[in-house]
Design goal:
The chain has 193 residues and is an alpha+beta fold. It is 32% helix and 29% strand.
Length: 193
C-alpha cells in the first residue's frame, strides 16, 4: 500500500495484552501497579456527583475547612475504585469471570486533591473452584499509598478467574460465535434489501 514502510520485519507473533490466568497466580507475589495516579479536584467532584454522593466533605470547600481535616477529602469510593482499577491490566484483563466480593475495606488515612495514588496487590490465596470446572478463586489484597508512602486504602477481595485452558477455549468459542453472529447479521441485511 502507498505510504507503508517496507523496512519493517514480517510479523511472526502477536501478543494480546491480558491479565493472568488462574494458573499463573502465586500466593506471596506482590504486583506494583504503575504509573501512579495523581488525583485532581475535577476527578473528585465528577466521581462524587456521578455517584449521587452529596457529602459536603467532598464538595463544599468552605464547610470542609471547618472540619478536622481542614479541607475537602477525595471520595473514598474513588480511592477504592482506583486501587482496584490500577490492577486490571496486570492481573485480570480478559481473564476474570467475576468479581466475587470484598472481605475487608479500610481507609487508614485521607487522600487529598493533588496527591498521587500508588497501588499494589498481594496474592493471598488461590484455590480451584469446586463447582465451576476451568475456573478458580483468587484472593487479592490491594493497597493504595500516597506519594509519601502513607497507606490511604486497603481492600481484600476475591475474584473468579479462568484457567488458561478453559479461558483460551472460551475466548476461541466467543470469537467464532461473534464471527458467526456477524455473518448471520450480514445475511439478514442482504435479505432485507
Amino acid at each position: 500500500m502507498p505510504g507503508e514502510s517496507t523496512d519493517l520485519p514480517e510479523v511472526r507473533r502477536e501478543v494480546l495484552q491480558r491479565g493472568l490466568w488462574f494458573d499463573e497466580f502465586e500466593p506471596g507475589t506482590r504486583y506494583l501497579h504503575r504509573p501512579g495516579r495523581t488525583v485532581t479536584e475535577a476527578d473528585n467532584v465528577l466521581f462524587t456527583t456521578l455517584t449521587m454522593n452529596t457529602q459536603s466533605l467532598h464538595l463544599d470547600a468552605a464547610w470542609a475547612e471547618g472540619q478536622p481535616f481542614g479541607e475537602r477529602l477525595v471520595n473514598s469510593m474513588f480511592t477504592l475504585a482506583t486501587i482496584v482499577g490500577a490492577s486490571v491490566a496486570q492481573l485480570t484483563q480478559g481473564t476474570i469471570v467475576a468479581n466475587l466480593g470484598f472481605a475487608e475495606v479500610a481507609f487508614p488515612a485521607p487522600l487529598y486533591h493533588g496527591d498521587t495514588l500508588y497501588s499494589e496487590t498481594l496474592v493471598v490465596a488461590v484455590r480451584e473452584s469446586a463447582s465451576r470446572p476451568g475456573q478458580g478463586i483468587v484472593t487479592l489484597h490491594h493497597v493504595g499509598r500516597n506519594q509519601h508512602g502513607v497507606e490511604v486504602a486497603r481492600a481484600t477481595r476475591s475474584v473468579l478467574m479462568w484457567t488458561r485452558e478453559a479461558g483460551e477455549r472460551q475466548a476461541s468459542e466467543s470469537a467464532s460465535g461473534s464471527a458467526a453472529a456477524g455473518a448471520r447479521g450480514a445475511e439478514r441485511t442482504d435479505e432485507e434489501e
